[in-house]
Amino acid sequence: MTPRRKETRPADSHRDKSTPTESENGSATATSAQLYTPKQAAEMLTVKESWLRRKAGTRSIPCTFLGKHLRFSERDLHAIIAHGARTPAARRGRPRR
Fold first, then answer.
1. What is the CATH class of 34-84?
2. Where are the domains of the chain?
């Protein structure tokens, strides 16, 4: 029994030819949105990956699921940052000398 050869296709053969790409029209399209893995997103946000996964699992932060795979878009990351922004609280306790 001889091993089967894997069929090879050109890189763009899977892309819908009717949808313009970034290089064709000069701007990013909805289909070319960048998605980040939890590890990449955690590094960008400087938080632990486990925290990010836990919050996404409870839907406490915006995220995207591709089937069972968790991903974060640029918009998700900006929303997480905006949601976490806090104004400084007034000092409690005795005043300093």
1. mainly alpha
2. 34-84
pTM over 0.70: no
Q: Say how far apart CA 4 and CA 52 lie, in whole Å.
A: 42
Which ranges of the chain does DSSP label H, i.e. alpha helix? 22-25, 38-45, 49-57, 74-84
Over residues 69-96, the pLDDT tens digits come to: 999 999 999 999 998 888 877 777 777 7
DSSP string spanning 76-97? HHHHHHHHH--PPPPP-SSPP-
User: How far is it, in rounded angstroms, from Cα 63 to Cα 38?
Assistant: 10
**3-state DSSP percent of the chain in helix, strand and coil, to 5:** 40, 10, 50
3-state secondary structure of 73: strand
